[in-house]
Structures are given as structure tokens and as C-alpha cells.
Amino acid sequence: MLVICTQCVQIRLKSEVEYMMKIFPKALAAVFLTAGLLSCSNGLSDPLEAASSRKGASARASTASTSESSRRVVGYFCEWGIYGAHNNYYVTSIPYSKLTHINYAFVGLDPSTHAVQILDPWATTDIVYPGESWDTQYKGNLGMLKKMKLEYPGVKVLISVGGWTRSNGFHSAAATAESRKTTADNLVAFMKQYGLDGIDIDWEYPGINRDKDSGDQYDMGAPGGIEDKENYTLFLKAIREALDAQETTDGTHYELTAAVGVGYDKIEVTNPGDYCQYLDALNLMSYDMHGGFETAIGHQAPLYANTAHDTHSELVNERYNIDWAVNKFLELGVPAEKIVVGIPFYSRGWNNVSGGWDVDGDGQADGMFGTGGSTLAGTWGTGGQSPYFVVRQLEGTSGWTKYRDTISKACWLYNRSAKELYTYDDEETVRTKMDYIINKNLGGAMYWELDGDDWQNGYDLVNIVADAMLGNDWNPGDTGSGTGGDSGSGSDTGTGSGSDSGDTTVPTDGPATGIPGTPSIEQTTWNGEATFGIKMNMWWGQNGTLVELYENGTKVQSATLTDNSPSAQSYTFTVSGKSNGAYEYVAKLTNRFGTTTSNTVKYTVTQGTSGGSSGSDTGSGTGSETGSGSGSGDSSGSGTVTGKAWTIGTYYAVGDTCVYDGILYTCRIANTAIATWEPPAVPALWVAGGAATADDSGNTNTGGGGTDNSNNNGSDTGTGTDNSGNNTYNPVNTELPKHIMSSYWHNWDSGTPFIPLSNVDKDWDVINVAFAEPVTPGSGNGQMKFSPCTANGYTAQQFKADIAAIHAEGRRVVLSIGGYEGYFSLDSTSAVNTFVSQIEGFIQEYSFDGIDIDLEQTSLAMNSGNDPDFRNPTSPKIVNMISAIRQICAKHDGNFILSWAPETFYLQMGHQFYAGLNGYVDNRSGSYIPMIYALRDLTTYVQAQLYNSGSIMDENDNVCYMGTTDGIVAMCRMLIKGFTVNGNSSYFFPGLRPDQVVIAVPASQGAAGSGQISNSGLQAAYARLNAAYPGMRGFMSWSINWDAFQNSNSFVDQNASYLDTID
Questions:
Q1: What is the pLDDT of residue 940?
Q2: I want to staple 1013 with a disulfide (CB 3.0 to 4.6 A). Which of 630, 770, 1017, 1047 is the partner?
Q3: What is the DSSP annotation of 410-430?
Q4: Are 588 and 547 a contacting pair, CB within 8 Å?
Q5: Is residue 856 among the annotated active site residues?
Q6: The whole model's pTM is what?
Q7: Which residue in 138, 24, 137, 133 sits closest to 82, CA to CA?
Q8: How many CB atoms lie within 10 A of CB 223?
């Protein structure tokens, strides 16, 4: 019962493949499955895999309250919704205040063992959501649903099992008492493991034997037989008993619902009057009654029968409608309060339409009840399957006419000249169905699927359903409105951190069209200090207009922000005068559409003192009005602290103090003191805490309070083995300047204005053309595509002429391969050959000077846990990519540019976690390491992206932050010095030459979600690195367009001028 997105076929339901995507919010690419599309009237219908999560009133429902609605509103969230074909619909996009239940679709059942099968592990359990740290406890869609339930405890989340393509495990699971118990126990264990509220069974369909669809590699078929009629009831009974047993253990009622077909042929092979006693709700799949899977045209979800037309059989004409199905279930003994009516948020359709009903009496057939073909293209698949908001856009388009069937209470769109027709539910039909549910005293409404509504513009159908079913009293928790419950004033006595002072009403102006992007937060100083900052970043997308900081669950600060969607937002809260102790911080970002919540930052204060000083909280940010808070405390900044003078050979534990050059230092990481580790030189180990003197006994007399006097002006060479300068491979590219400015040119016209190559600032030495992409995102066949953007009349010939002119100026143009949306892999020798041939063809046609490797998402992965030696990789995706790149480079001379643009996750993270060799990070971590190592003889430079990243450990295991001078120095230094891989001294990645390292940062505030740094801060980092490692190559930025759009080219102008001063 689900809409089949044929554009997503590539990775849907292939459990043997890691479906991985990156953690940053550029657009995610297409993924998903296809399903056989069969008529509801042929015994195999209800093709849509959408296991509509259906819940009616609980079997043991209590009286309704603000956190428990008397009616259900059930929305299906599809695991594949996070990918590009569904516009990246995340768990954080769900309108929780408009729902009572969320059904997560889908997991399967192993037909042999009856184990629960996760179909897309990356989406369901592994993806790290934007704003979450790599080690978050809220990984995957299920993890984030668990986190969101902390805000909306009244919303129930159920796991939906089966669906159209994965109902192959039900028949054997229900066959015997033993198999039923095993399956029930497995389902309950899965439910508990992921903190869910119940189970939704979407068996499509009991009693019907359906073979696999030979045209659909993902469809597993669905065995069935007459025995299912009784076994289905017993199966539900076994699950209910297992859930009841769990309730006895922990006192929580867990729900059991089922998605059931409404075709008369489906109903008659089951016993609804019997099995309903075990269910909290029956979610009727009251759609897909007609569609392109049959030639006769009809409404896909009619409320009533229109028997005046005989296009279908008499029984189908009479019974394929919602009213007949509802009355049949009531007749069979199903309580009205358990019946939940399903609503489609998508269309079905036909092409080559002929004949039909002349509904308006103008003498022309209007398509409905005529005949048509099955190949009408749709956004989600053939047969005219498109989300509601896409079809709605056609309503005002020339050639399309909207008609209504006042008998069936249904509508359709028809284009007479194109001979195309769509059947769907619009606002009026949904309102009519809500009235029907109320008048019949039914249990509520369900819809397939959440991302089919116009969610990017605040929802339409969702709001209609919620208003009718839930009214104004429904409150599942913190609705994110920002207007209730918090008075916005008060004090936080004794901690030195003030509470929010000021109005927390959410400003309603601005261009945002949906809930804010998910924010991330990070501390701005090391643990220990009593005054610090908590910085909020929202990387890209819908902006918030109110940001609030919560400390240990209590709001302590807030500030209003300016909505500049879709640019990035940032705001820094300053927290002052904290007492010693552990603190947890969370930020909430709100606009008129709702609220998103950040990751949690844990901060420990060890430098707070006792006495009588007051603390305060202030904030600063981009495009915002500063919010503030104040509080009173009882701490002072004076007293005597005992410690010893810093001495080489002494072991210092965390919290130990010492004196060096008249400054008191507190140890933040245990160490044994050695030369070059003097406290001012290694702030990773020590935090300065005020003036002090060491007496003869070694005691330290200190006064004053907590000022950090460390200046980090010590050596930037760090500790450990230094392999820099020992590389005799690949002589320096002499056609390039000694120091370069490198950046990316947008080969598209959106987000920022398009710039012809001829208008690119001439201070850019290397222009990376973004991007050559796969013909099909996620594919493994090596088929690639590239053509110049034709915005504003720009042509391929102009593009070629511009490259020739750039060459004449001594500058270079490189073809960048991949990018976030252009993810692919090379799965065979044939794919390698195809890739090499096509990329080389682009190079020759457009005279590119080299290639830049920007592979992300699923492009790179290693055999998890089985490929530890980066020097001798065995993983096919890695080995094949190395082969392909080497073959391309071999066709050119030594001045051919090979550059790499990995995110830190794919490179520096490999020092700590590599190749899935542990349980912390997936098998893509560090995946550039074996490629750069294997191709270091051909590598011109590496421009690792020091942005859109959380904190990363350097080669000395010190925590480093993007957007800071120290962080830039550390991340580049480790590439020059080399580092151990996966923390294993047996595997050491030897360092690159300084001329092979380029510092890469965002060009402007809107260019990335984090990593922005002032030009002066960037130049300070370069100066420190170049002093320690002369010959540093230069700067890279994302991007040319962003610098021109937001900075008027100040990034390139100022930093190019700086590099001109370097020898």
C-alpha cells in the first residue's frame, strides 16, 4: 500500500549494501524501491507499499487528555524519504504536533529464521543527523525519532513490518504456534531495542499467493494460502500476547495495529471480526483502488460508489470505495473506534487516455471512466505516481482542467491534448473524508505518506486532517511554538548562569517556508574554564527566528534571529562564572512552522571557585538581536591553591596544578612532562588559571580569578614521528604558482547567481568546475555526465573559449568529480573502463587541466572490519577507484593536476576510526587514506574540507575545532607529519610535502554550516604552518560563487594579496 518511487530503485531494500549518505545538509540523492502495480480488483492489488500505519483508539484506551487524543492521526514516515528523490524528508521535518502516531516503514521478516530485517541500515540506524556528533546515541532515523519523542512524548512511534515488496516473510511466520511465538518475540525485542511504542503489521496480503515480480529485482513476492485466514488471526494474537507480557514487565501499554486492504477480495479471506480484538486499530488502505496498473480508469480513493458507469465489473463498481469497506468492517463486528481511514498524499494516473465521462455536458469526454495506458511518468514512479504538492502545481497550468465527481466525492486532473489524467485527493476531498470519519464516529485518519504533502511550505493536507481530528486541545508535548509555558524571566541562583530574560515570542516574518534546519552546537573553549561560549550553527536551509539555550533541561538564554533563509545561521551564547560541575547544553531553533533541536554538548567546569562573584550570560550571532540573561552566584575569584612548579619527568593527572612562568595551570589531559611540552606550548594539556608563584616547598600561592593567559604561541610542530620532507615522489607541479588560490565554480544556476567563467575573479589560480556526476546517482556502472550550464544564454562554446582565455592568463581549470549529490561507485572492471573513457572524453573536449576528487556519501566504503591495511586495500570501491584515477593520470604529463577534496570524516578521522574496524564510526571513515597513499606519486595537492564538521582529533589525540586558527593548523599539520591509522602504530600514514597541502575553508557565512574564519585568522594559521613547514601550497574555498555573492570577492582578493607577500 505504498507509493512506489521508481526513481529510488538503486539501493532500496538491498540489505547487503551499505546505503550511506553524508552527515551534512547538501541535497541527498535518490534511493528507494519499486513495487508491482496491480489492480485492487485482481486479488493482488493495493500495490502501494506504504504500510499505512494505522491506529484507531487503543484497545485499552483511557479518557482523552491533551497528550492523548480521542482520535488517531497516523502518518507514515518512509526510511527512504531522507534521500533526494523525496526532497530529503528527515525525521526532524515531521510536524509532530499534528500527529498522534508515526509509523516507520519498513522492516522485513526473514522467512526462515523469522528475524527482523532492517532494509536500509544506513537510513534506519546509522546516519548521523546534521547537528549530531559522530558518537551520538541518536543515530539513524530510529535514533532521531527517539530523540524527538523527548520533546513530543504524546506521539507514539510504531515500527511497520512488511509492505508490498517485503511481505514474503509473513506466511511462514504465521504458519505454526512455534513460528508465531518466535516472530512475536523478535518483533517485541526489536521494538524495545529502539524505544518504540508498538508494532504495525502490513501483510500484503493474507490468503493470497503472489509470485515475485520478475521486472522488479527488489520485490520478494508474498507466499500465501487458504490457511492464512485462520493463521493471520493467530499471528496477531501471538504478537498481542508478547506485547502484553512486556507490559507486565515494565507497565507500559504497547500498541498493535495492522494495515489492511479494503478490496472485497482481501476482506473475505480474513476474519476481521475475530482479529480486531487483538488490535488497537485497523488502518484501512483505502486507496489504490484504481490506477495505471489497469486500463480502465477510475478514482484511486473514492468515498462513495458512482455506479452510473460500467467501466469496471459490477462488483468493483459497487464495492471499491471507502464507504462500502467501512460498512463491511462494521458489519463484521469491528468497533467503529478502531477503524482508521487511509488518505493518499499522492496521485495515480494514465496516459493515452480516450473516452470517459462527459462530466460537464459540453459534448467532450473528460477522461474519467475511460481507458488509458500505464506508462505515465510521475515524480515517484510510472503510472502517474507523484506527491500531492507536485500534482497540485498542475492545477493552474495551461492545458489542465480539474473536474469533480460529486457522487464519489473525488477529483481528477485531465489534459485533453496530452491525453493524460491524474486521480488524487485534494483539500476538498480530504475535508469531506474528515467529515465522514466524524459522522461515522470512526477512530481517525491515516495517510501515506508524510512527505507527499507540501511540507516545504508548511503543509496543506496534514493541517486539514489535524484540525478536524485533533482540534485545538491536542498537545503531544513541547510543540515548539515558543509562546507557551515559559515566562521568559527568572534567575538561576548559585550557578552564575542567568536565565532567559526577554520575550520568547516567535517572530513570524521572514522567507522561511518550513521548520528550521537542524542546528548544531559546540563549545568554544576547552572543558575546565568557568566562562565559555556555546555556539549554535545551522548549516543551510530554513532559518529560525528564535534560538534558546537549555542548561541541564532548563532554558537559560534566548535571542531573536533574522530570517535570511536559506543562508546559514550562527549565534554564540556566552556563559560566565560557572561553579565546578558537569553541565549539558541543548539549543532549540524555532520559527513559525515549528522547532528543531540540536545535539547535546557536555561541559565540565573545573576552574570555578567558591566565594562571591556573580555570573552572567550574553550572546552574539549573525543577523540577530543579542539575547541576554543574568544570574547571581556565590563564587569568588580569590584564594590559595596548592601545586608544584612544572617539572620535566613529572606525571600530571587530570586536575593537577602546576606553575610555569608565574602562571597557574591545571591539567586537562593526563601526561608526563617532557621538553617542548611546556604548558603555554600545549594548551591541549593545560589550561591557564591566573597569576601564581611557586615557593621553595613547591606550594603555589595564587590570587585573582580564572583569566586564561595562554596564548598558544608555542611550537606548531607538535609531538610524535615527523615524516615531513622525506617524500621523494612526484616532483612539484611547476606550471602552477608556488602558492595558489583554488576554488569551486558552480555549474548550475540556483542558490547563488550563475557566473560565466569569463567573469570569475582573476585572482583564482585554479578553478574547479563542479561537478562531473553519475548519470544515475548511487550507480556503480561508471556512466558519467557533464555539460556546461546554459543559464543566461551561456553556451558550451563560450565555456570552451573562456577556458582557453584562462589558460592564456596562466591559470588552470580542473574538473571536479562527484560532489554531495553526485555519489557513485565503480563496482567492476567494466565500470572502471567506462568511467576512465568518459572522464577522459570530458578532459579532451573541454581542455581541463586535471581532475579533483570530491567523492562523498556511498561513493567510498571499505569492507567493514576486514580491510585494516591502507597500504594494501582490498575493498572493491577503493581498489577500483585507485585504478581508474591512475589510468586517467597516465594519459597526461607530470603537470596534470590531481587534487583531492575530502571532508575530514574521510581523511583525518581515519587516525582515530578507520574502515569500520570498531563500533564507533562506519566503514567510510578514513576511506581517502588508501587512495591518497596509493596515488601519492601523482598527487598535486590535498585540499581537505575544514568545514561542515564537528570536532576532530589531531595526530596527538587533541580535540580540534573547525573555524579556528588552532584547528586549521592541527588538521593540516597532521597531513604533513603523518599519523597512525585507527590508532594503530603498525599502520602509519606518511606525511605529504607542504606544497601538497592546501588549507580549505568556506568563503562566506552562507557557504557552509561551520568552519568560517576571518581572513586574518586564516592567514595567521597559514603563517604558523608555513613557518614550521615552508612551502605550504595556499588556500581553497567553497566557493567562487559564494565569495562573489556574499563578499564581493573579498575572500580571494585579500588572501591572494596575502599570498603574494610570501616567498
A1: 95
A2: 1017
A3: EEEEEETTTTEEEEE--HHHH
A4: yes
A5: yes
A6: 0.49
A7: 24
A8: 18
